[in-house]
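re the bet — no i am not wrong, look at it urself. input seq straight from the record:
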Amino acid sequence: MITEAQIEAFQRDGAVLVPGAFSDWIEVMRAGVARNMRHPSEYASENAVSEGRFFDDYVNWRRIPEFEQLVRESPAAEIAARAMRSSTAQFFHDHVLVKEPGTPKPTPWHQDGPYYFVEGRQTVSFWLPLDPVREASLRFIAGSHRWEKPVRPVSWADDSDFYEGEPGYVPVPDPDADPAGMTVLEWPMDPGDAVLFDFRAVHGARGNLSDTRRRALSLRFVGDDARYVERPGRTSPPFPGHGMHAGQRLREDWFPVVWADEA
């Protein structure tokens, strides 16, 4: 499951490694990712790479049975609630990310939160590698989930600004070129391991220069305090026609509460 020490690290740093948490789910996840890649959705993207392939797609859990099984039957939701210190875990969406061998394009430094139409202190993403990962693992800026201002969201495909001209954002950081006191966390990972991170944690990843694929599945949950927010432009995922208003909890028929504390 998840230990109290791991929960403390998640709360402090915004990200934590939980080894072996999904060891019993590796083949289910691999089958789901393979099905998703054979049958991509309208949201699938190739991320404009000139070498290799960087595929991603999201919001497929209702049509990919392996993903729905993982959401509803794996320990993910309970782990999410405990890490968030929330009495509930409400599922937000799934996200598949595949970097084929010899794909130098990095995943840019970013926060997930500014792309979404939900905000709260109780949020968590799982990053679940389906192949051994050494150099292409996710990297996090420790404590960035507590920054006063969010990082400006840009398109991975062309670096265009999601909310052009909107104030209140800080530029995308580069802790490699300008560390400025930033501590970067990263871990070598094997299939079955999980990294949990806050939606506000700044993260990125190097390109995949190895000779093996880097398949990963993300699951995203929100907790008790998460609420719908209006953004000044498009969100990702967009969820057209949702009908929610600022300050509301996410509608449960679209975003089910998968785990609740019975105490």
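see?? Helices lie at 4-13, 26-38, 65-73, 76-84. told u. also The chain has a mean pLDDT of 94. so pay up
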